[in-house]
Protein 1
Amino acid sequence: MHTDLLITHATQLLTMDGGLGLVADGAVACHDGRIVAVGPTADVLAQVDSAAEALDARGHVVLPGFVDAHTHVVYAGDRVAEFEMRLRGATYLDIMAAGGGIMSTVRATRAASDDELLAATRTRLDRMLSLGTTTVEAKTGYGLDGETERRMLRVIEELNRSHAIELVPTYLGAHAVPAEYIGRADDYTDFIVDDLGKLAAEGQPIEFVDVFCDAGAFTVEQSAAILTRARALGYRIKIHADEFAHLGGAALAARLGAISADHLAVTPAEDRAALAEAGVVAVVLPGTSFGLGHAHYADARALIDAGATVALATDLNPGTCVCESMPFMVALACRYTGMTPGEAVIAATRNAAAAVGRERENGSLTVGKVADILLLDVADYRWLAYGFGDNPVVRVIKRGTVVR
Ligand SMILES: [Zn+2]
């Protein structure tokens, strides 16, 4: 068989096919952007007659591209001054109550031109790609009005066309109650429920609908109203649950059959069991706890032990996690959430693909899957957890093409 790209002699090849799927001296061949052969180098070479491009991966780990399953990558401005306020003792909820936090990014995003928003986001995507992320879930939620939320969806669509990274669009109109609706969260909830119908009728490019269910954001009742409407319109649903306060967002995710429940920093045992039972992917975001300087992290160990599928993501956003690095999330997850290196790498690839409905296409290296592949500058995958603060990714292949 002729192939476009052949990678041979990987010291460790991780296919993620039933667990890590570790193959010593592994190879993978790609054609037309898909994987056509994978396994021990000798077996793959027996099937491949020629390759347009060949990479020798001796001394390298080869694994699937990272899927960042939870990001707020589209935004304008920054909150560096607010960061110093937090260092001096103000809490995230104090800052939010004073009109800072998400609201300051909403003002900057509303004021930015399309070109400014595109350029700022593209720069972040470039860094994500160099760090090995090949698929990114991207949320709206810094518009919080009909027009700006639609502008954010257009930016995501445009970048999906023009950037090597594949973006998965999530509508998060319920990220915060905007200034125009302060004290009237129920009215803003009604606005979103109504606007969802319009967004669907317009055929807007939305795959998921998400709600920030927490203290200072949306109640369980408001979240349920939005997510029930979204589900009725045919959207799959996600929820920010139990980041600061245990309101019952994770239980709601289980009850409504959400694809994922994200954060889960203060989720109790009965809700962890409910997520596992309902098959809701638990997305843990250790970069946010780190970014806030909190000592408390989501208990991924307990989630895994309860039988839940656990995914990792950056939660990249200008307030609580200004970090594009999935390798750093793996390093944090192993230190603070109770995951082993193997579990964390599975969480950053295969399980993260499941969190964005891409398990048939991405997150593992098996025949027929999209050829999103990384080469690391280390020969043992556990270095992803062991080392931190540097970029271990030396080659990035997206849809069978070497892009980094
Ligand atoms: Zn988030």
Protein 2
Amino acid sequence: MFLLYGAYGYTGELVAREANARGRDVVLAGRRADPLDDLAAELDCERRVFPVDAAADHLDGVDCVLNCAGPFAETADPMVDACLATGTDYLDVTGEMEVFEALAARDAAAEAAGVTLLPGVGFDVVPTDCLAAHLAERLPEATHLRLGFDALGSVSPGTAATAVDSLGEGGAVRRDGRIQRVPSAWKSRRIDFGDGERTAVTIPWGDVATAYYTTGIGNVEVYAGVPPGAVLALRASRPLEPLLSLPLVTDTLQSLVHRVAAGPGERKRERTTCRVWGEARVVGESGIERRAVSRLRTPNTYALTVDSALAAVERTLSGDAPAGFTTPGGAFGPEFVLGLDGVEGFDDAG
Ligand SMILES: NC(=O)c1ccc[n+]([C@@H]2O[C@H](COP(=O)([O-])OP(=O)(O)OC[C@H]3O[C@@H](n4cnc5c(N)ncnc54)[C@H](OP(=O)(O)O)[C@@H]3O)[C@@H](O)[C@H]2O)c1
């Protein structure tokens, strides 16, 4: 049986409904009774109400937790404490680099407890992480990895809130195995995501953390496709970054986000698709560069998140995930993404 924490949030509710439709044994959980009661009554599921720091008292009979309550910088650590104390596997849909790094640092403790720590089982990072694993298989000597995605579709309130929380932090890449802070939109390049070239800029996406653990490649940059004018606008906003992390500014933006963002509706989730691109590189002793490029096409980011999170829970419940910290591509291999609904690839080139 698995417990879904944050079950009445936008993403949590999508996962709850799909788990129910698939006949899965799920307990719905969250910190507020009212929205949880309504959802549990409608889906005829068990529900448990508790704040995240009391989780250890509420995991009786639970084999695996799927945490959909973000920002995960607030919820992952206390939920992992509870999972380690009770011998429960932990999965979440974070995309937050710092959260991946914090959970990676708990690898030894999780392994000793026989517990799987598998963050990032949503759109961030399943397709990009599986693509990274695929590229590392194609070019095992690779020293540099570039990953990118072109996602057309609106975001949910929680994703916007998580993004607001990280405003002001600038960008990040991995250099020689270490995460390095860089300015926003630090590099831009033209990328053919599979539909002709478009402009993309570096972003501090979860793979800056995870791709290293999945592939061992120490230099990682992640790019997002942006409209042509956006590069200049992003760079022009750099002097404002310190202002954007002031509590007054983030609090105001947070309340705005929750008032105006509703998350993509069903029609938008069905219509929009996403393209994912990756390139592994190595320069040989002769100075000649070798490259491998591969691409994927996926459904809408939220549709994929629901499917990939449930698939990862099922594989974990079946005992397929190792104990300790792991990543989607590391735990289940590159082909994991190809088993998800509507995913096409790998399209190999280079
Ligand atoms: N990896 C991916 O690709 C991916 C995909 C989708 C979403 N996400 C991430 O998932 C998170 C949720 O997104 P969403 O759109 O579902 O947001 P949402 O609609 O705002 O829902 C957030 C949920 O988390 C709960 N929550 C927040 N802080 C909490 C805390 N400190 N303790 C207990 N519960 C807490 C909320 O409960 P209350 O209402 O009681 O505050 C709510 O149930 C975001 O961080 C988003 O970035 C990632």
Protein 3
Amino acid sequence: MLGEKERRAPFIKKFNFEPPGFVTISPGKRCNLHCIGCYASSSSANAEKLDYDIVSRIVQETHDSWGSHFTVISGGEPLMWRSQGKDIINLAADHPYTFFMMYTNGTLINETTASRLAEVGNLTPAISVEGLEKETDARRGQGVHSRILKAMENLRHYGVPFGISVTATKENADLVVSDEFIDFTSRNRVPFMAGYFNTCPLAAVLL
Ligand code: SF4
């Protein structure tokens, strides 16, 4: 997934350095939530974004230049990104040889979206959670936890592999490694992955 030998080797020979393992693209800054400490300064009013053609070209070039088959999508909320009549699921459909992992707040994964994700098959959501209901709602907004549970239900229903993304702070560090939290992931059958991030020490204090 991270590079075909046949394409990596000529790249290294030509440029004298290793290409990236993978590229993370943030196609747009718009987001429907207002989380405390949003790393991207996203909001519903922030319209900064890349054009579809640019994003598609980057994905294509990571493949053509060093044979990458894996791209990470961040944001803003990737499911809010629209450009040139296309969205993030269209991007996955247009690059069937690339596997995409998308960080998402999960709140926009309704039945239609889950079914489209199942259809393309190469875009997996990593849904952000801060812990259990209390912690997620405290940082992400009232009711977000229950919307995430509904998103997970929709993804399971359509057989879409998904995971979670957890940012550890001083507020939730103990909880997110507790049996209680692991039980939560098992109960909701988070089948694919769980990524833990730590904030920089200053940010951790501020959060
Ligand atoms: S969901 Fe992500 S991008 Fe949106 S406000 Fe929260 S942290 Fe920022």
Protein 4
Amino acid sequence: MTETITISNEPYWWVAAPPSREPAPPLPAKSDVLIIGAGYAGLSAAIVLARAGRSVTVVDKLAPGEGASTRNGGITSGNLRLSHTAMAKRFGADRADAIVGEAKLAREDLYDFIADEGIDCDFRLVGRFAGALSGKQYDAMAREVDHLRDKLGIEAYSVPRSEQTRHVGSDFYQGGNVRMDVGGLHPGKLHSALLRLARSSGALVFGNTCVLGVVRVGQGYDVKTEAGTIRAREVISATNGYTDGSDAWLQRRIVPVRSRIIVTEPLAPSVMNRILPTGMMISDKRKLTYYYRPTPDGTRLLFGGRDGTFAGDPTWPTTHLQAEMINIFPELAGTRLDHSWFGYVAMNRDMMPRVFARGGVHYATGCCGSGVVWLRWAGIKVARKILKLEQTSALDFDPPKSIPFFRGKAWFMPAVFAAMKLQDGLTKR
Ligand SMILES: Cc1cc2nc3c(=O)[nH]c(=O)nc-3n(C[C@H](O)[C@H](O)[C@H](O)COP(=O)(O)OP(=O)(O)OC[C@H]3O[C@@H](n4cnc5c(N)ncnc54)[C@H](O)[C@@H]3O)c2cc1C
């Protein structure tokens, strides 16, 4: 009899840390602060505000954490889509320095928080290897290393092609670089800890409670939800890639892009040691970036990238990712996959994560694919602004610009995906 193998389309992380689905008690009639979205951003804001004595209510239309915050790769990259040079051109050199400086602070703040709160989320500061696709990319990445080391004091070094198998068992790259300030964690366990801390600090967190709209009333807001209306003095929107029509204004500015991850069956220790000898996080410099890492127990490969669809076909994106994985590690050709799932990341026109306010509502949004560090930080920044503990952040930007002919469904993604793939294919090796 042949064994039927089915790939789970639930995140691997939910095995050890399933989203909490307990029934919600009735909503309070009022709250000092109402937060929409119970991911890293919403819960981090809730912890700061509740610990400062504010009454805080967090509502999520899904189970808390069922959005991107329990679906991601767990790489603490604090990555920015734009290079320092590109940011300097667009926002000025000082602002670019401030943004990368804040990325460093945000990363360190996460690591301190995990240690100080005793959070068990399998965090290891193992470093990240980024692979170059061409000699030209390798040279540019070497300049990046100089900047990281000399300007920011981050331990970083170039790895020539002849030495890359020390970090990744593949000859796919033309060398790369390593930065030691990036690590890996279990995103589901991190989210569970944030939820626990938010609740133990006094915040009320409700799942299955969709916000339908927010209306300004005097000095505050009426937040209409499926379970009733809450009067709040302040509102934080932390919906990121899961933004819906209840905020049609934001929806025209944030493109939800599907991002997918596959996880292999357990691999032999000898294979894991060969493909990922140091257990580092790995990414590359393609426009369609792929990233991978060992699962925290070191037994499986977790491999992620953009999904390339905006709806429908669940099999093609999985097969596509698997083919990319085999392209890098041909020895994984016969390997079974146990999980394949997707989530939404939030892209915007200038590809910057940000905090801003509009009509008095505070927004923390625009992760652009990298939010374990950034969106937690953005949530904290918004909370500290409400508490008037600080006024400014390098993430203070105007609201993102709207996108022509776009109302929330990223119909153009397959074409963008194909164009990026073509550009990557043309990168001179
Ligand atoms: C597959 C994948 C891999 C990723 N890998 C990495 C990685 O390795 N490293 C990294 O740094 N980042 C990664 N990210 C990005 C990271 O997960 C996100 O940036 C981060 O989780 C965003 O947190 P958040 O709190 O802003 O949003 P989310 O966690 O997405 O939470 C938003 C919440 O808002 C809720 N919501 C939306 N509308 C409403 C409404 N009307 N009413 C009530 N609730 C509402 C949603 O239900 C959702 O739960 C990845 C993302 C994905 C999808």
